[in-house]
Design a protein that fits this description.
Layout: E1 2-6, H1 13-24, E2 28-30, H2 31-41, H3 44-55, H4 61-72, E3 81-84, H5 90-103, E4 109-114, H6 117-131, H7 138-152, H8 154-161, E5 165-169, H9 174-185
This protein binds BIS(adenosine)-5'-pentaphosphate.
BIS(adenosine)-5'-pentaphosphate binds at residues 7, 9-15, 31-32, 35, 52-53, 56-59, 64, 85-86, 88, 92, 123, 127, 135, 144, 173-174, 177.
């Protein structure tokens, strides 16, 4: 299965992908995780991306396309993928389609998790306490949500037009949401 997971920051994309990947036998590809690893390792990509990430802004489309091209070209992706965090705007959605057409690995389904903003703020404040992720501070979370509304939310319309979009209620327990996603995947 070739799946794109959509949803605002803190909607549970990473949590749910980690649960689904083994069942589906496909890699979980999180651009946020790839970027955080690059920052940790001090690679040229990490050095360029860090300021945008710390501010809750998007890293440039050019850098992201290079990253995603490299990852989607790896052999494990032939089995399928769970893509989490990409595409993040309409330009990325179009670039991804071009890339996946070239690789003959088009998206089967886009699953969008819907979660109340109040719940998002609560989840990310809790993670800030527990893990201290640098972009989970109140001010940066507010900006990540604004960036989501302005740039990423239109991506759901892009997949709706292609009749690939399915919205899934992302409120409730992790298990309940996992069950809904499993049903949505058919
Ligand atoms: P990224 O890592 O993708 O951040 P995000 O989308 O804001 O994702 P999160 O990890 O915060 O949320 P999630 O939906 O995965 O939820 P999670 O499962 O973690 O990106 C970080 C940054 O990198 C971006 O701001 C940007 O700068 C850059 N970037 C990444 N991709 C990019 C791209 N394509 N283009 C440009 N820039 C890019 O859950 C969140 C918390 O809630 C966890 O603590 C979890 O345990 C908890 N939780 C999950 N489900 C539940 C539940 N049901 N009930 C209670 N708690 C729950």
């Amino acid at each position: 299965m070739r799946i794109v997971l959509l949803g605002p920051p803190g909607s549970g994309k990473g949590t749910q992908a980690a649960l689904l990947k083994d069942r589906l036998g496909v890699p979980h590809i999180s651009t946020g995780d790839l970027l955080r690893a690059a920052v940790r390792d001090g690679t040229p990509l990490g050095i360029k991306a860090k300021a945008a990430m710390d501010a809750g802004e998007l890293v440039s489309d050019e850098l992201m396309l290079g990253l995603i091209e490299e990852r989607m070209g790896a052999p494990d992706v032939k089995a399928g993928y769970l893509l989490d965090g990409y595409p993040r705007n309409l330009a990325q959605a179009r670039a991804l389609d071009e890339l996946l057409d070239r690789l003959a690995l088009p998206v089967d389904k886009a699953l969008a998790l819907t979660v109340d903003e109040e719940q998002i703020v609560h989840r990310l404040a809790k993670r800030a306490e527990q893990e201290g992720r640098s972009d989970d501070t109140e001010e940066v979370v507010r900006n990540r949500l604004a960036v989501y509304r302005e740039q990423t939310a239109p991506v759901t319309g892009y997949y709706a037009e292609k009749q690939l979009l399915q919205e899934v209620d992302g409120m409730g327990s992790i298990e309940e949401i996992n069950q809904r996603l499993t049903t949505a995947l058919g």
